[in-house]
Amino acid sequence: MAFLPPSTNAAYRGSPAAAWFLGLAAVLTLAPGAIHSFAPDGGMVSIAKLDVGDRAALVRAVFAWEGATQIALGLGMLAVALRYRPLVPLFLALVIVERGLMGLQAWVLLPAAHHPPEHYASPVTAILALLFLALSLRSRTA
User: Fold this and answer.
1) Are 10 and 140 in contact (CB under 8 A)?
2) Which of these, 61, 65, 66, 75, lies nearest to 23 by C-alpha position?
3) How far is Cα 22 from Cα 95, in angstroms, rounded to an integer?
4) H-type helices in 1-142, by residue range?
5) The whole model's pTM is what?
6) What string of pLDDT tens digits covers the 142 residues of the chain?
């Protein structure tokens, strides 16, 4: 038994651009995941410019936890984009849910005076993922 089942790409009928977008989203999920997991400050000060005060260790631990989930999700997204394209619509829907909730939390439910870069990127990514979801659901013409 192989670690991964055979590729199902031949069964995918949606736009190849949607799969490529999912691949890009995977890379853009893996990179911050690696930063959050392995950078000395997890990116909390060096990138996000957060003032963590005396709670640096706690915030660093939360960043590392988030980084671990980003790495796992990013690897799944990459596998779908490269080998299991019939799942592209599902994974784009998951990106919409994730990024939509992140944007909603950042700007509406838990707004803060300071907005790190991801607060701006999440709503844009959700909208782009919605566009590519529509493309992934349209059958290609032969």
Assistant:
1) no
2) 75
3) 9
4) 16-38, 56-83, 88-104, 117-137
5) 0.91
6) 689 999 999 999 999 999 999 999 999 999 999 999 999 999 999 999 988 899 999 999 999 999 999 999 999 999 999 999 999 999 999 999 999 999 999 999 999 889 989 999 999 999 999 999 999 999 876 5
